[in-house]
Amino acid sequence: MYQNLKVYQLALDLCVEVYKITEHFPASETFGLVAQIRRAVVSMPSNIAEGASRGSFREQVRFYYIARGSLAEVETQLELCIRLGFIKCRLHSRTQQVYKLLNALIKSTKLRFSANN
């Protein structure tokens, strides 16, 4: 089950963290940067869950790549938040941890796919 995947759990933790830090952003960013970063961060565990629930390895890998793309989007938006002075802390160690696990999941899924073909 996807709920048992460490990468899924860490992606959810990152979601909670991003939601907490964006609660205090300027009201002018509610429909801009806040909405964008929240959509991107929610996309990560959502795509991991959807990928893990798909029937074929090819579809699984596709959704894991989408999750990885969303992670890159979140990292970019967090960097922008730092440069704009909205946040002081980087979540770099958290995002890198998710990135490593997601890459491992992609690699292992590809290996299982090649073993079955």
From TrEMBL:
Coiled coil feature spans: none
Signal peptide: none
Gene3D superfamilies, sorted: 23S rRNA-intervening sequence
Superkingdom: Bacteria
Alphabetized PANTHER family for the sequence: FOUR HELIX BUNDLE PROTEIN
Descriptive protein name: Four helix bundle protein
Organism field: Pseudidiomarina insulisalsae
